[in-house]
Amino acid sequence: DAGVIQSPRHEVTEMGQEVTLRCKPISGHDYLFWYRQTMMRGLELLIYFNNNVPIDDSGMPEDRFSAKMPNASFSTLKIQPSEPRDSAVYFCASTFTGGPSTDTQYFGPGTRLTVL
Amino acid sequence: KQEVTQIPAALSVPEGENLVLNCSFTDSAIYNLQWFRQDPGKGLTSLLLIQSSQREQTSGRLNASLDKSSGRSTLYIAASQPGDSATYLCAVRRFGGAQKLVFGQGTRLTINP
Q: Cβ A42–B44 below 8 Å, yes or no?
């Protein structure tokens, strides 16, 4: 398997623009997570899905952030409108809870977002 | 609220030394604890996962221990190599907290040849 795939790897945009980050989890995994990593706050969980259903979005900073998972192989994280303080690395991760590696989360390479 | 702390924030040691990284957590009601490695510009890679009922896990030169009652975990790296240079993060999953992980800030490890 190719692992968790994220696109784009780098995104530079101007304040006020809409940003969409994409994630393809590992095939067969039933949980998908979106994290944000900054120097100041470290790694924070934004939202996670189980079988395409959002379970906990308490980490989403505000209404400007939204996430969807229309099917088991694709998820998006959207920021509209973007602000400079949203600049961070956004990671997607997935896990499968039915096998011997239960709870091991597999991370994608991340999307480095810069909002000017 | 669960808080995870890793001290020191950075560590530099000569190649070949054995070393210990520390992780502490405030709420002992955890389901499991994981250690991850993060290379610059990359995602996280899971190294070891310790269930709450376990005391330690080993993988090659790595050994992770867990003491729930004191809220502590250590990652022991034997015979360190320059390739071990990375940031190491620990994360805990709260008991009853579904799949939600709380991460420490990490320890940036540098192994000098």
A: no
∠A37-A75-B103 over CA atoms, to 5°? 25
User: Hey, are the CB atoms on B99 and A109 less than 8 Å from each other?
Assistant: no
* DSSP state for residue B53 in the 8-state scheme: T
Summary count for chain A: helices (H), strands (E)? 0, 11
On chain B, the residues whose CB falls within 8 A of the CB of A107 are 43-45
Q: Find the length of chain B.
A: 113
**How confident is the prediction for chain A on average, in pLDDT?**
93
Cis (ω within 30 of 0) for the bond into A8? yes
More confident residue, A39 or A77: A77
Q: What is the pLDDT of residues B95-105, one digit of tens each?
A: 766 778 999 99
Q: Which two tokens stand for residue A24?
A: 């393809």
